[in-house]
Write a structure and sequence with these properties.
- This protein has about 210 residues and is an alpha/beta fold.
- It has one domain: Rossmann fold.
- The chain has eight helices and seven strands; from the N terminus they run H-H-E-H-E-H-E-E-H-E-H-H-H-E-E.
- It has a seven-stranded mixed sheet with strand order 3-2-1-4-5-7-6.
- Strand 4, helix 5 and strand 5 form a beta-alpha-beta unit.
- Helix 2 packs across helix 3.
- The longest helix has 25 residues.
- The two termini are about 30 Å apart.
- The relative contact order is 0.16.
């Protein structure tokens, strides 16, 4: 593990250890984003990997659509809240792990997702995670990314900064297209919601290896 990843691990544990108890309360305001992102999955009964799943809100939103979903996150504190969302009627599983090194074979998922995660990590880590998502997603499968759009006004930007991580500012400066270009992903759709402050991007995976 390099120094960037080591620093991210330490920062992640401290940052999300603090926010985990109230994260779902704040998440009430972005519930429409979870629903809209889940609706982007094409077809039924898909196998989905939800990366940087946090307290599992997006993971569960996919599972409620009838999909089989695995959520992975680095934070034990966040996952402790995610586990409380598991019910017998949902095909969902949460595991703790570093998404930089996704421990699944090539091309085993129909879709992969990262929701409000890229802005909470260093760019180098984000690029590695996106490449890992490409690897484990079938060729022709979907990669769904939900994250911030550039805030449409100064007040919105200042409000978001109150709780966001130290990586948030860089993410906004370079923009989501910078990350997509770095890994060779081209959006097939892009929707902005919630007063244009959030965006949901869907890409078709044309780079996967293995089980294609």
């Amino acid at each position: 593990m390099n120094s960037v990843e080591q620093n991210h691990h330490s920062y992640n544990a401290e940052f999300f250890g603090k926010w985990a108890p109230v994260y779902d309360v704040l998440g009430i305001f972005i519930a429409p984003l979870r629903t809209e992102a889940a609706s982007k999955v094409s077809g039924e009964n898909k196998r989905i990997l939800d990366v940087a799943c946090g307290t599992g809100a997006q993971t569960v939103a996919f599972a409620k659509k009838g999909h089989s979903v695995i959520g992975i996150d680095l934070s034990h504190d966040m996952l402790s809240h995610a586990q409380n969302k598991v019910t017998p009627d949902l095909d969902v599983k949460f595991i703790q792990g570093d998404a930089v090194k996704i421990g699944f074979p090539d091309g085993v998922f129909d879709a992969s997702s990262i929701s409000l995660g890229l802005h909470d990590m260093p760019e180098k880590v984000a690029i590695k995670i996106l490449n890992g998502m490409i690897r484990v997603t079938k060729k022709g499968g979907q990669i769904i990314i939900a994250d911030y759009n550039t805030p449409q006004n100064w007040l919105g930007h200042q409000f978001m900064k109150l709780w966001e991580s130290q990586y948030y500012q860089h993410f906004l400066q370079v923009g989501i297209d910078h990350y997509l270009d770095a890994v060779g992903l081209t959006p097939t759709s892009k929707d902005v919601i919630l007063l244009n402050n959030y965006q949901i991007i869907t890409c078709e995976n044309n780079k996967a290896r293995g089980n294609n």
